[in-house]
């Protein structure tokens, strides 16, 4: 992989024994990036796709195992229909160009979110990518699309209560693992690192359960300007954090 001098410097600071296993990203700031340039907001979404490609490449290169990317929230339906339509077209555009490379890289694509709420054409494109990569054993990329953490919890509670009322699960056996298993992320470890560009410092309904002990990393850079350098810097900073999980430092 080609790296600039700055990227190389950061790369050399990384301890490869302690790469975050799971990185989650709230890909934010596309609209502001575009407005700053006098462009329509959707131009920012298109530009953001390049950051997404670059991020998947560097995460894969570093040996990250899970990458969860927030692409569309359950609240983003409130936006003007033109913008929503554009955003719902992007996944198929992206996948039609990139799926082969992702398959060649052994990437496994997963969808987190309410698939049934997506337009048919979007759902079909993503589900095809999921099926075509499901045997892959490399980096798992979760696309959080029509995803809302509160929705995810409600869905899990409903599934669990159904099992309890059917008699196949005892109330006293419900524990943290039960809840985790019924989330979209079931079977995957919680994120070690959460990145949010664009200067906002909030979760916007992203992974409320899973982020309980995650390290947060913020940058004012807008997502379309987010490059390998930012990802590498986030990992370098992550490796300096002292994670205690409620206990005491070793
Ligand atoms: C993130 O960028 C993409 C989505 C939420 C779909 P925004 O569209 O939120 O960009 P800003 O935050 O308005 O700049
Ligand atoms: C969160 O960003 C959703 C995605 C990046 C996909 P928003 O732009 O929707 O969040 P708020 O509205 O600023 O909290
Ligand atoms: Mg935003």
Describe the SSE topology.
Layout: H1 5-13, E1 22-26, H2 30-36, H3 41-62, E2 66-73, H4 81-104, E3 108-112, H5 120-133, E4 140-147, H6 149-166, H7 176-181, E5 193-196, E6 215-218, H8 228-238
Parallel strand pairs: 1-2, 1-5, 2-4, 3-4, 5-6
Helix pairs in contact: 1-8, 2-3, 3-4, 4-5
The structure holds 3-methylbut-3-enyl trihydrogen diphosphate (IPE) (2 copies) and magnesium ion.
Measure the end-to-end span: 36 Å
- In terms of DSSP E residues, the strand content is 5-15%
- Level-1 CATH class name: Alpha Beta
The domain count comes to: 1
CATH topology: Undecaprenyl pyrophosphate synthetase
Cα-atom Rg, whole angstroms? 19 Å
Amount of helix = 40-55%
Structural features:
250 residues; alpha/beta; Undecaprenyl pyrophosphate synthetase; six-stranded parallel sheet; 6 strands; 44% helix; 14% strand; binds 3-methylbut-3-enyl trihydrogen diphosphate; binds magnesium ion
């Amino acid at each position: 992989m080609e790296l600039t001098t700055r990227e190389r410097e950061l790369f050399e600071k990384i301890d490869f024994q302690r790469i975050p296993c799971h990185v989650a990203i709230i890909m934010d700031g596309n609209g502001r990036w575009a407005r700053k340039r006098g462009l329509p907001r959707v131009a920012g979404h298109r530009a953001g796709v390049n950051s997404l490609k670059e991020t998947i490449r560097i995460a894969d290169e570093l040996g990250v195992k899970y990458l969860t990317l927030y692409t569309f929230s359950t609240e983003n339906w409130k936006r003007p229909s033109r913008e929503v339509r554009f955003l719902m077209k992007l996944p198929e555009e992206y996948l039609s160009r990139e799926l082969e490379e992702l398959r060649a890289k052994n990437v496994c694509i997963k969808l987190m979110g309410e698939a049934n709420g997506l337009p048919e054409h979007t759902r079909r494109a993503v589900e095809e990518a999921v099926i075509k990569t499901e045997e892959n054993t490399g980096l798992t990329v979760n696309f959080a699309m029509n995803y809302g953490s509160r929705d995810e919890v409600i869905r899990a509670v409903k599934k669990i209560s159904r099992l309890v009322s059917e008699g196949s699960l005892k109330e006293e056996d419900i524990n943290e693992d039960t809840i985790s298993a019924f989330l979209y992320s079931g079977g995957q470890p919680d994120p070690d690192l959460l990145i949010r560009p664009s200067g906002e410092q909030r979760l916007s309904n992203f992974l409320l359960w899973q982020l309980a002990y995650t390290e947060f990393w913020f940058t004012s850079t807008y997502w379309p300007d987010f490059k390998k350098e930012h990802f590498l810097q986030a990992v370098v900073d992550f490796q300096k954090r002292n994670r205690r999980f409620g206990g005491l430092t070793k």
